[in-house]
Amino acid sequence: MSGAHEAPSVEVNAPDGAFARVYLDGAHVTSWIPARSQVDRLFVSSEAQYGPGCSIRGGIPVCFPQFGAFGPIGHHGFARLSRWAVVTQEEINGGARVVLRLTDTEASRAVWPFAFRADLSVHVAAAVLTVQLTVTNTDAQPLSFTAALHPYFAVEDALATTVGGLRGCRYRDALRDGAEFDEAGDVLPIEGHIDRVYFATPDVIEMREPNRTLRIEKRGFPETVVWNPGAEGTRTRSDFADGEELHMVCVEAAAVRPPVLLASGEHWVGTQLMTAVR
Ligand SMILES: O=P(O)(O)OC[C@H]1O[C@@H](O)[C@H](O)[C@@H](O)[C@@H]1O
Prior knowledge:
Keywords: Isomerase. One of its GO terms (molecular function) is glucose-6-phosphate 1-epimerase activity. Its EC number is 5.1.3.15. The active site is at residues 150, 252. With 278 residues, this protein is mainly beta. The protein has a single domain, classed as Beta-galactosidase, Chain A, domain 5 (Distorted Sandwich), CATH 2.70.98. It has two helices and 20 strands. It has a nine-stranded antiparallel beta sheet, with no helix packed on it. Residues 55, 68, 75-76, 150, 174, 195, 225, 227, 252 line the site of 6-O-phosphono-beta-D-glucopyranose (BG6). 6-O-phosphono-beta-D-glucopyranose binds next to strand 18.
């Protein structure tokens, strides 16, 4: 574990001023500042740890080859704990992009016995951050996985924040023993600790605060996860500071049910696009 300044990271600087920072450990985006803005739309804890083998608390963890407990290996998989390599850095599509890559190693095969290639592309332009995960089965046998992009969005007051667009979707509530319900509300208020996987969600939803809105889009990911640790959750985690639950909301794009199944040589693409509407 180390401090933010010692761990290697790359900057993504678009000609219009849009900015992102990505750490090589975990291919972890920790900062996103849209063009013509001074405000970072991602939350990172003041207690976050950096470096090989520790997941940064905040930003956008990449959960692969497993999301949560949806699969046979450890919670949220090993991608967020692994060193990725920078493949390309370029100006493209009016913005800037970096692509990082993770491939199997002896250590990964000991946990998950497959050859694979995972590419994470991070593109910024204007008011949009686009994060795309491409997984290729480079093994001779089929493989299956679950995955998520797990952004911690910075909010001024989580308790004044709502997520709109999930009405009618079935969800699994981890706070009620994994029981399933149908979302009845037009908007979902964040009222404290929440931990839900919404299934078959619309590809465009909105996170609204009193003074600003984020449009959160996904492609290839069927599910949306909404998570806030609540006061108890930040108090009991050493990489969170007390009270930080009020300044973050996770709205994640996930692929969990069913797991993604790839034949030898096939690939899968999942994308999350975040737009600062205001
Ligand atoms: O503390 P971690 O491993 O980063 O996980 C954070 C949270 O991630 C969310 O996606 C899960 O739904 C929660 O159950 C989990 O607590």
